[in-house]
Design brief:
The complex is a heterodimer. By secondary structure, chain A is α/β, with parallel strands linked by helices. Chain A is built from four helices and five strands. Chain A has a single domain (about 1-105), classed as 2-Layer Sandwich (Transcription Regulator spoIIAA). Chain B is about 60% helix and about 5% strand. In chain B, helix 11 (about 210-220) packs parallel to helix 13, helix 16 (about 290-300) runs antiparallel to helix 17 (about 305-315) and helix 17 (about 305-315) packs parallel to helix 19. Chain B is built from 27 helices and five strands. The chains are: A alpha/beta, B mainly alpha. The interface between A and B is medium-sized, with 21 and 30 residues.
């Protein structure tokens, strides 16, 4: 996973398929990033597939971040991934931006 | 003169205005700003004011002038509709950043905003971001109060805040008589991962109430384990179309091998077009290689919308091993097969495939030609010359699409073409597209160029578009 810093935030570029296995790896990496401080933006630009197990890992990540008063936002989702978030109502839970630039403010 | 209340924190001066404050008080703001060089942002909080005196308005303008000199941003916070109208009628609204700042509101007043459909979501977001014991207790009080509108948002706010300590409250809300409360509770139980409630959520899958089956399907998917695909599959045969579609969504979200097989099977017996379309769309979301074969076969289906869904699914997945078969189909005797086969190839980057598509152009029907031109705009590495040759085509749709595709792949070439066509093309559709490209790319002097066009342009949509962007 590529990570870049901009505007005091870290942007993590998720790739390929987000399932239980890859989601857990993403969670571990992002948690480590959050421990170092600063907000994290998860870019879904290169995410092709995602399932409910992957979603659960993202929720879990958000839960830990929330508990530690850290900010995690999401951006650049294709319409299929976005629909998963809206179907589950998780678009109400996460801050989702259309573009990376908007997420970085 | 009232007593001006203000505080300065982290370079932000926040002045709390009340109805008794007058010009002298706003002048006090000026003095505070002048004497505190650390101020970088001024917030004038008007939460307590429902109206504004003209003298006070003059004072605000004076603060704005000072803010400009000091390069300080000035925000008007929580202005009432009446004040907004005054600012608009005096054309002063452009001078200020106007926004809501919910930190000014007492908790009771904030929760009252759950009644406001436009603001309820933002307030809920604010409360969850600032969640503490006071907010939690207030939300529990609201839930115990039983007003369904307030209860719905109280539940959603607790779920947003990832409050895992009150799962019993969410479970109890499943018994509410109002669908909105039930649906909110179901969603929240999914968000907080309450697997104990999952079996109960199945009983809501066949509910006739608004949003209840949808929420149940979503939360079951979020809480799913290896057994749920099988349990959900039986709903694919429900007599109610809505339930079948909801089950398709849940299975596509679970996205395991069993789910794929149940959805693929459903495509064989499902008769209703709208359900078949959903099946095609959701099957495209599986990584399983068999999904591509199914979508390829659907390109020959009798239903045009289903073919479209299949083409879109193939294009989304990347056509991979089906590219040659799709190329063959572009020249199919049934021009709709050709049309959707061409559309499936969107995003292809192989130069040989692109060249083949271009070579088919003269052999196919108009709709397939249009699909080829459209698809080439979505292919990296397409040559500008081919698309450029189509902007003189007899068919206005093809000219318009060629211009669009050129713009997607070769912006400067598209701009040159647009600068010619916006003035000369006989079709208003093509001229409209050309104007769009000019407005998007904004070359030097574009506004003068378009303004000159206003004299000769006869189409009202183009005139309105140009005037809307650059003024008369």
């Amino acid at each position: 996973m590529n990570i870049k810093s901009a505007n005091g935030k870290s942007v993590a570029y998720l790739e390929g398929e987000i399932n239980a296995e890859t989601g857990a790896a993403v969670k571990a990496e992002i948690n480590a990033l959050l421990d170092k401080g600063g907000a994290v933006v998860l870019s879904f630009k290169s995410v092709v597939y995602m399932n409910s197990s992957g979603l659960r890992e993202i929720i879990d990540l958000f839960k830990t971040a929330n508990k530690n008063k850290k900010e995690v936002s999401l951006c650049d989702m294709n319409s299929d991934i976005r629909e998963m978030f809206s179907f589950t109502g998780l678009d109400k839970v996460f801050k989702i931006y259309d573009t990376e630039a908007q997420a970085l403010g | 003169m009232g007593d001006l209340k203000y505080e300065i924190k982290n370079g932000i001066l926040k002045a709390h205005i009340n109805p008794e404050n007058d010009l002298a008080d706003i002048q006090e703001v000026l003095k505070v700003v002048e004497s505190h060089s650390e101020v970088v942002l001024i917030g004038i909080d008007m939460y307590k004011c429902s109206y504004i005196q003209s003298r006070f308005l003059a004072g605000l303008v004076a603060v704005k002038k000072l803010a400009m000199v000091r390069k300080i941003t000035i925000e008007l916070l929580n202005i009432s509709d009446q004040i907004a109208q005054v600012l608009q009628s005096t054309n002063l609204q452009k001078l200020f950043v106007i926004r809501d700042d919910y930190s000014s509101y007492p908790l009771d007043a904030l929760c009252e905003k759950f009644y406001d459909t436009e603001k309820a979501g933002i307030v809920s977001e604010y409360l969850s971001a600032n969640y503490d014991d006071d907010i939690k207790n207030k939300l529990i009080e609201i839930i115990n109060g039983g007003n369904p509108i307030l209860v719905e948002y109280a539940l959603l706010t607790m779920g947003r805040a990832q409050d895992y300590d009150n799962i019993e409250i969410y479970r109890k809300a499943l018994e509410a008589s109002e669908a909105s409360v039930k649906a909110a509770a179901i969603l929240v139980l999914g968000w907080v991962g309450d697997t104990h409630s999952k079996d109960k959520l199945y009983s809501y899958l066949t509910s006739k109430e608004i949003n209840v089956p949808e929420s149940a399907a979503a939360s079951i998917a979020l809480l799913s384990d290896d057994t749920d695909s099988e349990k959900l599959a039986k709903y694919l045969r429900d007599e109610d179309t809505r339930i079948r579609i909801v089950a398709i969504y849940a299975l596509s979200l679970i996205n395991d091998e069993k789910a794929f097989e149940y959805l693929a099977e459903a495509l064989k017996y499902e008769k209703e077009e709208q359900v078949r379309i959903q099946l095609a769309k959701k099957i495209a979301l599986f990584r399983d290689k068999r999904a591509g074969t199914i979508l390829l076969e659907l390109l020959d289906d009798g239903s045009i919308p289903l073919r479209e869904a299949a083409a879109s699914g193939l294009s989304r997945r990347g056509t991979g091993e089906f590219t040659d078969k799709l190329l063959e189909k572009v020249c199919d005797n049934d021009n709709w097969v050709g049309f959707f086969a061409a559309k499936s190839l969107a995003g292809i980057e192989d130069e040989n495939v692109i060249k083949k598509l271009e070579s088919f152009y003269d052999k196919v029907e108009q709709n397939v030609k249009l699909a080829i031109v459209e698809v080439l705009g979505k292919c990296q590495g397409v040559d500008a010359a081919f698309l450029l040759s189509k902007i003189n085509d007899e068919n206005e749709d093809i000219r318009k699409e060629a211009l669009n595709s050129l713009n997607l792949r070769h912006g400067p070439v598209a701009l040159t073409a647009a600068m010619k066509l916006y003035n000369t093309d006989s079709s208003w559709l093509v001229r409209y597209k050309a104007v769009n490209i000019i407005l998007e790319q904004k070359p030097v002097g574009y506004d003068t160029l378009l303004r000159a066009r206003l004299k000769d342009e006869t189409n009202k949509y183009i005139l309105e578009h140009i005037i809307g962007e650059i003024g008369e």
